[in-house]
């Protein structure tokens, strides 16, 4: 993660957020074997002009023991996006996660209709 003093346009910020999302697709839930984006765990990405990034996500269950592992993997994935100078993962519980948040790909892979 590098220092930057550049002012990003709204279009550039959207492009950076898209690359952040692509990097998050490399973070695989070890229990389900599917990435956290397709599982619908990523709720919001905030990218500031300073490069500071907040990723709001949830887990499939409140007591999920994977929170630390996933957070660590997210920090690793953010190293692939040079504009991100600092990453923070915030766990949110509302709205509660349901299988409705999963992508079609994740549903097919897990055999959920």
Automatic annotation (TrEMBL):
It comes from the Bacteria. InterPro entries: Fe-S_Maturation_MIP18 (IPR052339), FSCA_dom_sf (IPR034904), MIP18-like (IPR002744). Residues 17-89 form the MIP18 family-like domain. Pfam families: FeS_assembly_P (PF01883). PANTHER family: FE-S PROTEIN MATURATION AUXILIARY FACTOR YITW. This is Metal-sulfur cluster biosynthetic enzyme. The lineage of its organism: Bacteria, Bacillati, Bacillota, Bacilli, Lactobacillales.
């Amino acid at each position: 993660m590098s220092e930057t003093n550049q002012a990003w346009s709204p279009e550039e910020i959207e492009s950076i957020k898209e690359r952040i999302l692509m990097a998050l697709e490399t973070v695989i839930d070890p229990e389900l074997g599917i990435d956290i984006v397709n599982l619908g765990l990523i709720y919001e990405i905030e990218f500031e002009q300073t490069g500071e990034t907040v990723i709001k996500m949830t887990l499939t269950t409140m007591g999920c023991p994977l929170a630390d592992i996933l957070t660590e993997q997210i920090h690793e994935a953010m190293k692939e996006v040079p504009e991100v100078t600092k990453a923070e993962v915030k766990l949110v519980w509302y709205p509660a996660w349901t299988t409705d948040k999963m992508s079609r790909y994740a549903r097919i892979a897990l055999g959920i209709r």
